[in-house]
Amino acid sequence: MAVYKRTYTRYSGPLTDERWRFSILPRYTLRSVFGSRFYAIALLVGLLPHLIAAVLIYLRSHIDALVSLGFDIRELQFLAIDGGFFFTLFIVETFISFFLVALLGPGLISPDLANNALPLYLSRPFSRAEYVIGKLSVLLAVTSAVTWIPGLILFGLQTTLVGPSWSWDNSRLLAGILVGSGIWILTISLMALALSAWVKWKPVAAAALFGIFFVTAGFGTVSNAMLQTRWGTLLNLASAMRMIWRWLFLQESQYRITTPPWATMPAWTGLITLISVCGIALFLLSWKIRPAQVVR
Amino acid sequence: MQSEDRLIVFDNVSKFYGEVLGVNRVSLSIEPGVTSLVGPNGAGKTTLMNLMTGLLFPTKGTVRVLGISSSDPETFYKNIGYCSQFDAFPKGLSGYQMIRSMLALHGLSASEAEDRTWSVIERVGMTDAAHRRVAGYSKGMRQRVRLAQALAHSPKVLILDEPLNGLDPMARAEVIELFRKFAESGMHVVISSHIMHEVDIVSDSVIMMSGGYVVAEGDIQGVRHEMEDHPIQILIRCDRPAVIASSVFQQDSVVEVRIHADGRGLLVSTRNPDRFYELFNRIILQNRIVVEAVAPADENVNAVYQYLVGSNGVPPL
Question: Which has the closest alpha carbon to B94: B138, B144, B139, B145?
């Protein structure tokens, strides 16, 4: 054995905060998302309901002035900017955010698995959890742009136009926008990541995501009809989320008036459904996101 | 005896993948310098490397690199640079972006990462292709960029799985030279390779594996001398080989002598090379034999591999 002098020294300068290292991962992905014309158009389309809602809020608050100017928008005086308004808006955004996740999510983890990039990431001070959070942050950023961020802007717009008393009276809506959006975008993002980790081919992963969303919903409806039950509704993720939105935006009383008692479902059942989906997705991710693959 | 903070230590390490054996009861102390892992496919080389890099946890036993366990990832991974044997790159990134991202994961500031990225890209000769996507690189270029990401954060331990694959002869020579320089500066360079003559050139010590077990470790001459089942072969080129051949049989330890067809040399197999060399010196002085060369014929990785693993070192197809 040769005898060597120890002349080698490694980098010993200051390091960045390790809590934020996950944000390195989405850097290039987000740059390509916001740089792509296709994704930019998809985001704009996703923002359309909020743009329409902003116009309605503006018109509703200036209805008298506009009518005096000769605009025939009297019907708008029956429009209330309340829980029902935001409930309808976020039901639409439930679907739009899902489509955005289905476009973007399947391509996030599968290329890293196909190109053996995981050992590269994980042979650094970077854990599996940080890897998943890094990838998740891409979807959370994109879906936030069409859910709670414009939701808060609308809330702020209405407050500005009507006055702070409206904001105080409707503070529950603020919590609804934040909590409801958080639950939904987290659920669909984890689902998309889990499928991306398990299905290497991007179109198949996207198809599987749509399949889970729509086929289980159809299966739930058929189960309800055949078994004369209401529990099949829980297989429909959009319906499960609708139950939560309804509770958050104080629309349950309205719902109970229009729906027979045997068909109503409490919000907590929807919440449990979505938590279960998140749990399954996390389990699938922890199974698949491993630094070294074993070839048997 | 080296202190543990300068060694890579495997203490009775076993790794099983369910019922499949990865490595079994491995105890090693790897010193600074170039150490080569040698063995057929499925011998456990990559598992051993994955254990060293903390990518796998042992089923039994402990692995410590420079006295640090992978349970302290921040310190552990500062010291380790890893280059996997397979093509490995995040899709869509250029070589520059890939190396810079990896440095950022180590916690380097943007300006430090930028400087180091260019420095390491230059070192592996990839400056012109730095902004091209890795997916469009040739095999050799991908190998270089993989090597670059392993070197970029200046680790003390480089673990390189088949690092010479895909490199052209010039690049191989440059990379081997680079390994020697790293070793001379006190780094650990652990490589796995199937190319035996390059292992011979570059390695200070060898770990030979078969079926998940370490079958030999140490410097190759030392390993060879401990293999008493196989007599050591000594190649002699001289003007009168027949004289030497007739004289060396005085020793019981000489088991075979073969005279070369051209009559200008012979191959001696002996169980005690030290005693043979004493006798050999006497013979050539007494008989005034002109000796052109004396060299051990099987004190190399390939010969040891053949004896211990039972193959010529070429992985089975």
Answer: B145
Pairing of strands B157-161, B80-83: parallel
Cα separation, B242 vs A150, whole angstroms: 96
Report CA B161 to chain centroid distance, whole Å: 10
Determine, yes or no, domain membership for B61: yes
Tokens representing residue A97 in the block: 């955010």
Digit-coded pLDDT (tens) for A138-191: 999 999 999 999 999 999 999 999 889 999 999 999 999 999 999 999 999 999
Both B194 and B285 in one domain: the answer is no
B104 and A13: CB-CB below 8 Å?
no
Distance, first Cα to last Cα, chain B: 41
Same domain for B236 and B143? no
Taking CA atoms, B292 is separated from B91, B163, B235, in Å, by 57, 37, 11
Number of structural domains chain B divides into = 2
Please tell me the pTM assigned to this model: 0.80
Contact B185 A5 (CB under 8 A): yes
Q: In this structure, are strands B205-210 and B213-218 parallel, antiparallel, or unpaired? A: antiparallel
A4 touches chain B (CB under 8 A): yes
Q: Provide the sign of the torsion angle of the four alpha carbons A246, A249, A250, A251, taken in this order.
A: negative
